[in-house]
Amino acid sequence: MNKMGFCITGSFCSMDDMLEVLKKVSQNFDIEVFMSEHVDEMNTRFYSEKDLKEKIKEVIHKDIHTTIQEAEVYGPQKKLDVVLVYPCDANTLAKLVYGINDNAVTMLIKSSLRNQCPIVLGVYSNDILANSGKNLLTLMNMKNYYVVPMYQDDYKKKPNSVVACKNKVNDTIKCALNHQQYQPFLLGYKEV
Questions:
Q1: Closest Cα to residue 87, out of 27, 179, 163?
Q2: What is the DSSP letter of 189?
Q3: Helix %, strand %, coil % for the chain, to 5?
Q4: Does the predicted model carry a pTM greater than 0.90?
């Protein structure tokens, strides 16, 4: 069975979507979960950090990796077939563009890129069609980065916001494993 690094960053409103995607991909991959420090430590109006971790462990039946040290070995020693960042927030996009490595997620990606491992990004951001968009487009032009198709989730109230389409994750992973970007990556609302 192929091995996947499943990374979770701080788009807190998307944790129900994340759990749904985690259940789906765990049917086809041996999963190792990695969390950014914010997801690891923060209680939010959506989940307490304890409850969220319990729900994740119900799916993977393993410990969750939360430190740079735990993630670093997945480059040279424990190689992965694919890394999925779901949700991937705008803060993480910016760190990846500039090579900033300061948590388990960014370390895992850096370690995995050395092995030409595909990195699949499921973007959730309130400003991706504004200031953060340049980081997404930069990553799309960098080798081994692939994007889950996305759509505007509320174009009237939040015109700059997009979310990844959870129904397109498996197709995107299949393409990424062949080093191709799934198309189309921008969806109209009726296509979701």
A1: 163
A2: G
A3: 40, 20, 40
A4: yes
Distance CA 148, CA 181 (A): 9
For residues 148 and 146, give the distance between their C-alpha atoms in angstroms, rounded to a whole number: 7
> What integer pLDDT is reported at residue 128 of this predicted model?
93
What is the C-alpha to C-alpha distance for residues 68 and 130, in angstroms, rounded to an integer?
30
Tokens of 177: 């494993």
Distance separating alpha carbons of residues 54 and 71, to the nearest angstrom: 20
- In the numeric block, the tokens 């309130």 are attached to 126
pLDDT at 122 over 80: yes
* pLDDT of res. 45: 65
Please give the angle made by the CA atoms of 123, 129 and 133, to the nearest 5 degrees.
65
Q: Is the pLDDT reported for residue 116 higher than 90?
A: yes
- Are the C-beta atoms of 5 and 78 separated by less than 8 Å? no
Report the distance separating Cα 164 and Cα 86, nearest Å. 9
Q: Which amino acid is at 125?
A: S
Residues 6+ apart with CB under 8 A from 119: 82, 83, 85, 109, 112, 113, 144, 145, 146, 176
Nearest CA to 119 out of 9, 38, 15, 1 is that of 9
Cα 74–Cα 76–Cα 82 angle in degrees, nearest 5: 45
What does DSSP say about strands 119-125 and 30-35: parallel, antiparallel, or unpaired?
Answer: unpaired
